[in-house]
Give the backbone structure.
Amino acid sequence: MELVLHEEIEYNGLFLNIEEFTDIKVLVHLKGRLETANSIHFLKFIIDLVDFSSVGCELILNMKELYYVSSTGIGAFTTILVNCKKKNMNLFMKDMQPKVKDILELLGFISFFKLI
Amino acid sequence: MGININFKRFVEKSNSMFYVTSLKGEILYINDFGKSLLGITPDDINSGINVQSFYLFSEDRADFIQDLQKGEIIQEHEIRLINSYGKKIIGHEQSYIVPRSSGVDLVYGSVNDISDFIELNLNTARLNLELADINQKLQDAYTSMAQQEKMATIGELAAGVAHEINNPLGFIISNTNSVGRYIKILTEIFTKIKKTYNINAVEGIDQLEFILTDLGEVLKENKDGLRRIATITDSLKRFSRMGDENNKSNFDLNQAIKDTLTIAKTQYKYIADIELNLGDIPPVFCNGDSINQVLLNLIVNAAHAIDSLDPKERGLISIQTSVKDADVVFQVTDSGSGISDSIKNKIFDPFFTTKEVGKGTGLGLSLCYDIIVQKHGGKIWVENSSQGGAIFSFTLPGGNYGK
Ligand SMILES: Nc1ncnc2c1ncn2[C@@H]1O[C@H](COP(=O)(O)OP(=O)(O)OP(=O)(O)O)[C@@H](O)[C@H]1O
Ligand SMILES: [Mg+2]
């Protein structure tokens, strides 16, 4: 994977944009819908990014414009979280939409994630 | 014709929900499986029940219709429903719009109940997460065990070395003091001789005068060095398991912090301001001398960290005490440049220092570790603050005061 900053990449209705990448902070903007059709691509994208990141840094997913997350999306989030923990990285979810929060809550996952 | 009848039978008896609704959501047809999935009766259907009432998140329906109207034939997605018994259902839905000349478009669709499948999958995910947490804890425990073991061995070694050094050190110091007295006497006698006799002609007399003055200087330096060695051996001796560490009593940590700040004032007054946030904490049952030493080490370290900023700027040392789960918690935050990951797990090791030779022994934090963890069963750790400085914290188990 080559690391391109400030360039929107689309996977079936999900738009990803790396807005910041430093030794201490990685910020990714998520836009659109995270569902069966793109969860795998999303997962691969972020896991590659985690591989690239420095040990102990923080990964922030800006979810302000992410309007829908399916159960496969939640699965992707948990896999990402596990990978972050292995690298001693902190995962934060920023500005999560209430609807997305509801589904995380419903399926009993909210407590695993740090919302900011 | 036969195909049509058989197909109708298939739809009727299928283990998926099949439905036809209007765009507005009135249910026009739903198969048996659908009825039992949603928990609806034929009466419900006759009274014009609306699918909207089965959506777990009411806005989902409008989003879904919007997607359908984008015109693709089949839309596939995950649907979140709640049936009339209150059971939440996640389904995989495929549907499409059938436009009709009458203008009343219909929605045809099927839903597979995938709740169990998803629950299983998410359970695995949850287990994975918990596993990762447990792994992390194990790793932490392992690191701290390794550290304790290392400290125990080094502690014994250090106590032995300190003891060995202390004996010769004792007589060197006492001899040095005697030499000092002798030099003083020699100088006095020399001054008298010079006054009484004319000895200026004696060859080398200038040199003798110089030697007598310089001896004093040399001796002063020696004493300085000896004092430094004594400090080190004193610190080393504290590693020893014995000593007065068992001499514990109820101790007012807040008062001790104030006392330490008074004693250490020269170390920080030109460097940083102090901010105190001392909570309402119970007395701690501990060895006061040792805890005082921990406080002093941490505060001096904080001052040094701020002092080594480049460019220099006046900093802030904030000290906090509080109670958490029956433990007393101490925290000191400085505005220095923090501790980089590369040295984070070395700073509690004996003799690890980044300070120049002669300035730091690298024993400060290892002593703190020994005192807090080994001698008092507490914890000590470091983090970096969001402003970039270091936060050193320790806990002392409360609740055993008076024992
Ligand atoms: N508040 C702090 N901020 C940044 N680095 C620190 C801080 N406290 C300790 N350190 C780092 O940890 C090292 C070890 O500290 P420690 O107190 O054990 O020894 P020292 O301060 O170097 O020497 P001594 O305490 O014997 O004078 C220091 O040299 C420094 O690099
Ligand atoms: Mg120190």
